[in-house]
Amino acid sequence: PFDVLIVGGGPAGAAAAVYAARKGIRVGVAAERFGGQVNDTMAIENYISVLETDGPKFAAALEAQVRHYDVDIMNLQRADKLLPASEPGGLIEVQLANGGTLKSKTVILSTGARWRNVNVPGEQEYKNKGVAYCPHCDGPLFKGKRVSVIGGGNSGVEAAIDLAGLVAHVTLVEFADALKADAVLVSKLKSLPNVTIHVNAQTTEITGTDGKVNGLRYKDRVSGVETLVELEGVFVQIGLVPNTEWLKGDVNLSRFGEIEIDAKGHTNVPGVFAAGDCTTVPYKQIVIAAGDGSKAALSAFDYLIRQPVV
Ligand code: FAD
C-alpha cells in the first residue's frame, strides 16, 4: 500500500506528490490525464516567477518534477469509488474504472474541475482562439478589444465588471429574463459606460474568420429576432463543475459539488484530504491549486506521524 495516494495529476496533485515524496514515504499518483486543465491552456502569464509559458510546456514541467522523485505515476487511470477505512487508521481504498483497486494510508483528492460549455457552433473550433473561460487568466489578452460574456450569474457579472476595466466594450448575454447575480454586482455592472446587457438572449453561434472569433450571434427569446454582435472574444461563464461525481455519498460535498475542506485540506473522512479546483477553496487558479496541494500533502504527513505504533 501507499502512504499517500493522490487522485488527480494537475497542479494540485503534482505539488502534493512533490511535497509528499520529499518526506521519503511511498507516494502514488493516479490521474486520468496528467497535467489536468493546464493541457488545454495557451498562454500562462500569472504563475509567479514564470513570466510566460504555455499549457503543454507547463504540464510537461509538472510531470518532470514529479518524476524526479520516487513517485509511482499511474497515468490514464480514472478513479470511480472511494472506500473509507473500515477501522481508525486502516487502509483507504480507491477503485479504478479498469477494475483495479489501490490501497493507501492517506488519500489526497485533486481531481479538478471543468468549465461548462455552451455547446453552440464555434465554441470548440475557436477555443483559445477567442473563446475563453477564465477572466483572471485571459482577460489581459483582450485589452482594448470587444468581448462578450455569456452568463449573468455571479461569475458572469463579476467577469463583465472585471473585463470592462480592460477591454473596449463588453456585451453580456443572459438566457433568463433577468440577471441572477447579487444586486450590488448588478447595479455596479449597470453603472459602467462600456457594457451592454441583453437578457432573454440565447446564444446560438460563435462566429469567426481566419481561425479567430469575430462575432457572437444570439436570439431574442421573446421576439425571435437574431442579432450578430461583432467582437474579438467570448468568455463563457455558465459554471465550473468539480470532478467529484464519483465521491457523492462518501465525502461531504457542497451544494455545488465541491469537496468541503478545512484550512488544512482535511475532508470529513479521516485520512482523506483534498486540494485544488475540486474543493471549496475560492478562486480557481494554478498558483492556488499548487499551494493547496502542498498544504494537503503536509497535512497527510502530519496525520501519518500521529498514527499509533502497532
Ligand atoms: P486540474 O488541473 O483540473 O487537474 C485535475 C486532474 O485530475 C487531472 O489530472 C485529471 O485528469 C484528473 N482527474 C479528474 N477526475 C479524475 C478521476 N475520477 N480519476 C482520476 N483522475 C481524475 N489558471 C491560471 O492560474 N492561469 C491561467 O492562465 C489559466 N488558464 C486557464 C485556461 C483554461 C482554458 C482553463 C480550462 C483553465 C485555466 N486556468 C488557469 C485554471 C487552472 O488550469 C486550474 O485552476 C488548475 O489547473 C487547477 O488545478 P487542479 O490540480 O486542481 O485540477
TrEMBL record:
Source organism of the structure: Hydrogenophaga crassostreae
Required co-factors: FAD
Binding positions for NAD(+) per the UniProt entry: 146-160
Comment on bound cofactor: Binds 1 FAD per subunit.
Keyword DNA damage found: no
Top-level division of the source organism's lineage: Bacteria
UniProt: FAD binding residues: 3-18, 267-277
Disulfide linkage: 134-137
Family per record: Belongs to the class-II pyridine nucleotide-disulfide oxidoreductase family.
Gene Ontology MF terms: flavin adenine dinucleotide binding; NAD binding; NADH-dependent peroxiredoxin activity; oxidoreductase activity, acting on a sulfur group of donors, NAD(P) as acceptor
Protein name: Alkyl hydroperoxide reductase subunit F
Span of domain FAD/NAD(P)-binding: 2-293
